[in-house]
Design a protein that fits this description.
The complex is a heterodimer of chains A (about 400) and B (about 120). Chain A is an alpha/beta fold and about 400 residues long. Chain A is built from 14 helices and twelve strands. Helices cover about 40% and strands about 15% of the residues of chain A. Chain A has a seven-stranded mixed beta sheet, with helices on both faces. Chain A has a three-stranded antiparallel beta sheet with strand order 9-10-12. In chain A, strands 1-11 form a two-stranded parallel sheet. In chain A, β3, α5 and β4 form a beta-alpha-beta unit. The radius of gyration of chain A is 22 Å and the shape is globular. Chain B has one domain: Sufe protein. Chain: A (Alpha-Beta Complex). In chain B, strands 1-2-3 form a three-stranded antiparallel beta sheet, covered by helices on one side. In chain B, α2 packs across α5 and α4 packs across α5. The longest helix of chain B is centred in the C-terminal third of the chain and has 16 residues. Chain B is globular and about 45 Å long. Classes of the chains: A alpha/beta (about 400), B alpha+beta (about 120).
C-alpha cells in the first residue's frame, strides 16, 4: 500500500478541497483577517469577501443573497430550519397542534431535531420509501393534513443516492398553499430540503424546486469542512437558534468563518460551471464499475437504483461477507470506502436506510457504499476491480455456512 | 476505527481458520442479523495425566475485522490447553493479546469466549 497512490471512493463523506478553492481561502487567515462585523478597513475587506461568497451561493440557488444564512455546515442548517421554523410558528400560535412530515431515510441531522419536537408534542408523520429508496408521491400527498405546517425531505439520500421528487412535492405544496390562502386559512406549509448530497449533480434552483428552505454544506462540493448555508425564502418566519451576536440577521449568531465562507463561495461557483461534464464522467466510471462487479462477483445486490440516483453512488451488498471487514480489507489495499454512512459507523446497528428499502438485517450488514468523485480515473476503477473480487471471496471463505 | 497492529495482523492472516472434519464438538454463537457469527470446531485428546486437552481447534467467522481477529487470537490461546484451562480464558485476556480493541468492539471478544464454552459444553 505504501508505494501505491490510495484510491478514494468515499466522496459522499467528504471531498478533497479544490486547489483553486484553497488558494482563494488562504489570504483570509493571516492577511485579510478582520472581523466582518468591524467597521474599519480590515473588517470591511473581510465583509466584502463574505458578500461575494453570498452572491455565489445565491446565484447557484437562483435566490437573493439576502436569503442565504451561513452556518457551520448542513447539520446546523437543518437544525436551524427545523427548530427555527417550528419555534417561530409556536411563538405565533402557542395553542395550535402542529403537524410535520419527513421521511424514514432522512439524515440524523433532520430526524433527531424532529424527534425532539415530537417529544415536545408536535405530531410527526415519517414517510416510508419504496424499494428504490424513493417516496411514493401519493403517500406524500395523503400524509398532508389541515394542520401540516412543515415538510422536510432530503433531495438525495447519502447512502444509496436515491433522488426524491422534490420539484413534484414542491408543486403539490404550492397548490395546497394557494387553496389554503383562498379559503382564508392563515396556515401555510413550509418546505425544507437537505440538498447536501445533491449540489454536485442536480438542479438546485429553489424556484424550480419550490422549497422555502434548503440546507447545504461545503465539504461535499470540493470545499472546506465546517461551513455550510441555509437558504431561507424571504418572508419565512424563522426564530434564531444560536443567539448572541446578531450576526446573519440575528438568525445565526457567531463570528463568521470568513475563510470557510470564501471557500464555500468558490467551490459552489466551480460546481456550477463543471456540473454536466463531471456528471457524465463520474457516471461512466460508476456504471462500468457496477457492471464489472456484477460480472466478477457472485451474490451481489445493487441497492442503488441506477435510473434514479446521483451518478456517484454505488451501494452494493456482498452477501456472505461482512461490510466492515470488507472496508478494512480494502483500506489495507489503499482503497477508501464506507459502510452505510460515516455518521453511522460509531454504532453497530444495521443502517436504517437499508432496512427501509427492505433489506434484511444480515444483507444490510454486508453492504458497502462506493461514492465516486470528479478526480477518480478509469485506471483506479480497474485496480479496485482487480482487488475486490478475491478479497470478497476470501472473507466469504472465512465464514461458516449459514 | 482505530485497530491495533496485532488485530490487523490476525485479520490479514488469521490462525487456525477453517473446519475440522469429524470434529468432537462444535459451538456456534451470534447471528447474521446482528452482523457476527462465530463457529468453533474442537478435536479432543488426553494428556499423560488423563486430562482432556484441545488437540486441535479451528474457527469460521462471519463478522467485522475485530470478530475475525478475536477468533484467531482465541484459537491460539486455546490450542493445546486442558478443557479447564480453556474454560478459564477470559475476554480480557483475548483483548490484551490483541493489543486492545476499540470500546464498541469489545463485545466481539465475549462472542469468542461464548463460542469456545459452547463447543466444550457440546462435547
Amino acid at each position: 500500500m505504501s508505494n501505491i497512490k490510495p484510491i478514494y471512493l468515499d466522496h459522499s463523506a467528504a471531498t478533497p478541497v479544490d486547489k483553486e478553492v484553497l488558494k482563494i481561502m488562504l489570504p483570509y487567515f493571516s492577511q485579510t483577517y478582520g472581523n466582518p462585523s468591524s467597521l474599519h478597513s480590515f473588517g470591511q475587506a473581510a465583509a466584502a469577501a463574505v458578500s461575494q461568497a453570498r452572491e455565489n451561493v445565491a446565484d447557484f440557488l437562483s435566490c437573493q443573497a439576502s436569503e442565504i444564512i451561513f452556518t457551520s455546515g448542513a447539520t446546523e442548517a437543518d437544525n436551524l430550519a427545523i427548530f427555527g421554523l417550528v419555534n417561530a410558528l409556536r411563538e405565533k400560535n402557542p395553542k395550535e397542534k402542529l403537524h410535520l412530515i419527513t421521511s424514514v431515510i432522512e439524515h440524523p441531522a433532520v430526524l433527531e431535531p424532529v424527534r425532539r419536537l415530537e417529544a415536545e408534542g408536535v405530531r410527526v408523520t415519517y414517510l416510508p420509501v419504496r424499494k428504490n429508496g424513493v417516496i411514493n408521491l401519493e403517500n406524500f400527498i395523503k400524509a398532508i393534513k389541515d394542520n401540516t405546517v412543515f415538510i422536510s425531505i432530503m433531495y438525495v439520500n447519502s447512502e444509496i443516492g436515491a433522488i426524491q421528487p422534490i420539484r413534484q412535492m414542491g408543486e403539490v405544496i404550492e397548490k395546497i398553499n394557494r387553496q389554503r390562502a383562498k379559503s382564508g386559512a392563515n396556515r401555510k406549509i413550509y418546505f425544507h430540503t437537505d440538498a447536501t448530497q445533491a449540489l454536485n449533480f442536480l438542479n438546485c434552483d429553489v424556484k424550480y424546486l419550490g422549497v422555502d428552505l434548503l440546507s447545504l454544506s461545503g465539504h461535499k462540493i470540493y470545499g472546506p469542512k465546517g461551513v455550510g448555508a441555509l437558504f431561507v425564502r424571504a418572508g419565512t418566519a424563522l426564530s434564531g437558534v444560536q443567539l448572541g451576536g446578531h450576526h446573519e440577521k440575528n438568525l445565526r449568531s457567531g463570528t463568521l468563518n470568513v475563510p470557510g465562507i470564501v471557500g464555500l463561495g468558490q467551490a459552489i461557483k466551480i460546481c456550477a460551471t463543471n456540473q454536466k461534464k463531471n456528471n457524465k464522467e463520474i457516471l461512466k466510471l460508476r456504471d462500468k464499475f457496477i457492471a464489472q462487479v456484477k460480472r466478477l462477483i457472485p451474490r451481489v445486490i445493487i441497492n442503488t437504483d441506477l435510473k434514479n440516483s446521483t451518478p456517484a453512488h454505488a451501494n452494493i451488498s456482498f452477501v456472505g461477507a461482512e461490510g466492515e471487514s470488507i472496508l478494512i480489507a480494502l483500506d489495507l489495499e489503499g482503497i477508501a470506502v464506507s459502510t452505510g454512512s460515516a455518521c453511522a459507523s460509531a454504532n453497530l446497528k444495521a443502517s436504517p436506510v437499508l432496512l427501509a428499502i427492505g433489506l434484511k438485517e444480515e444483507i444490510a450488514h454486508s453492504t458497502i457504499r462506493f461514492t465516486f468523485g470528479k478526480n477518480n480515473t478509469a485506471a483506479e476503477v480497474k485496480r479496485v476491480l482487480k482487488i475486490l473480487p478475491p478479497l470478497v471471496k476470501r472473507l466469504r471463505r472465512l465464514a461458516p455456512e449459514l | 476505527m482505530q485497530y491495533s497492529k496485532k488485530v490487523i495482523e490476525h485479520f490479514r492472516n488469521p490462525h487456525n481458520q477453517g473446519r475440522i472434519k469429524n470434529a468432537d464438538a462444535v459451538g456456534q454463537v451470534g447471528n447474521a442479523a446482528c452482523g457476527d457469527v462465530m463457529k468453533i470446531y474442537l478435536k479432543i485428546n488426553e494428556n499423560k495425566k488423563g486430562e482432556k486437552i484441545i488437540k486441535d481447534i479451528k474457527f469460521e467467522t462471519l463478522g467485522c475485522a475485530a470478530a475475525i481477529s478475536v477468533s484467531s487470537a482465541l484459537t491460539d490461546l486455546a490450542k493445546g490447553k486442558t478443557l479447564a484451562q480453556a474454560l478459564a480464558i477470559t475476554k480480557d485476556k483475548i483483548v490484551k493479546d490483541l493489543g486492545g480493541l476499540p470500546p464498541i468492539k469489545v463485545h466481539c471478544s465475549m462472542l469468542g469466549v461464548e463460542a469456545l464454552r459452547l463447543a466444550i459444553n457440546n462435547l
